[in-house]
Design a protein that fits this description.
33% of the residues lie in helices and 18% in strands. With 319 residues, it is α/β, with parallel strands linked by helices. It has a single domain (8-305), classed as TIM Barrel (Alpha-Beta Barrel). It is globular.
């Protein structure tokens, strides 16, 4: 997914917006197989545990870990990414076992976007104080990493005490990348030091002013990364890709969705790449064309300009 000064493309699920029934998700995994075969870099699944009608977005419906396990069996090479797992709402032991299991089953293809949560109704439903989610987020990350990295960790945390016990399985390569989403109520210095990457909103996508602002944000973050090591930046956008190749970049839904033709999308991706973005996750659920048709056009006409990086083959996954 990631290399300095280069941008790759992933696809956000679901491919169709939930409008009260599951029918629009029928056959989605068939298109995910197509995404894999076309050599997109990643597929992303969202984490929305409970549907809040006032919020108006049910996410991708399936539990993200259950669905990624299913997609791991339906694909061969594409990276499997959460965007984003709400680390404050689940216990780190459960998070670590689910994540490590998917990573092993997929041959090491899991990348975790993680967040502290932004839907107020979810926190009382879980019995968790939303005002302290910044602290819980940091504690969950530390607990999670101790479990997956060490064979017999000694953990003393407000989330639990652990001694002489081991989490199994361990990740396929010994670790799982954790990409912080937005601020997650943390400082930029903390994100620079403790994240494996950063996923932020794209600013305006209808013209070049947004990518310029994004470049400033990315540069400020990278200046704070200890030792100047490379850490990837990601962004995302919901697009309505129309058939007219030259249809101008037009904001919809208050800028939440971008309607554009292929030429405008390519221009935006080029601007993002020049801004320091290393991966673009595109959602097509608000579009009007059949998802398979859009994926085909992206795969044939856009992806060759932003190719997925050559990397090691997935590890053993024939469980």
């Amino acid at each position: 997914m990631f290399a300095p000064d280069k941008l790759t493309i992933g696809i956000f699920l679901p491919l169709k917006f939930y409008v009260g029934h599951m029918n629009d998700l029928h056959g989605q995994a068939d298109i995910v197989e197509m995404i894999d075969q076309l050599n997109f870099s990643a597929v992303w699944v969202r984490d929305v545990p409970l549907f809040d009608r006032d919020f108006g977005d049910a996410g991708q419906l399936f539990d993200p870990f259950t669905y990624l396990a299913y997609l791991a069996a339906r694909t061969k090479n594409v990276s499997l990414a959460t965007g984003s797992a709400i680390f404050t709402l689940r216990h780190p032991i459960d998070l670590a076992e689910s994540a490590s299991s998917i990573d092993v089953l997929s041959g090491g293809r899991l990348v975790m976007g993680i967040a502290s949560g932004d839907r107020p109704a979810e926190f009382p439903a879980y019995g968790i104080d939303a005002d302290h989610r910044d602290v819980r987020f940091r504690e969950t990350i530390e607990f999670f990493r101790n479990l997956i990295r060490h064979h017999s960790p000694s953990i003393q945390s407000s989330l639990g005490q652990l001694e002489g016990l081991e989490l199994l399985p361990k990740p396929a390569t010994g670790d799982i990348p954790l990409v912080v989403t937005g601020s997650s109520r943390q400082t930029l210095d903390w994100i620079a030091e403790h994240s494996d990457g950063w996923l932020t909103y794209p600013e305006s996508t209808a013209d070049s002013s947004g990518p310029r602002k994004l470049a400033q944000k990315i540069s400020a973050w990278r200046e704070k990364i200890p030792g100047g090591v490379f850490k990837p930046h990601m962004t995302n956008e919901w697009i309505d890709l129309v058939e007219d190749v030259n249809y101008p970049r037009t904001p919809l839904r208050g800028g939440y969705v971008l309607r554009t033709g292929r030429a405008g999308l390519i221009q935006l991706l080029e601007e993002w790449q020049a801004s320091g973005v290393n991966h673009a996750a595109l959602g097509i659920q608000f579009g009007n064309r059949p998802p398979a048709e859009v994926i085909q056009e992206l795969g044939e006409e856009v992806l060759p300009l932003f190719p997925t990086h050559t990397g090691p083959n997935p590890l053993f996954s024939r469980w």
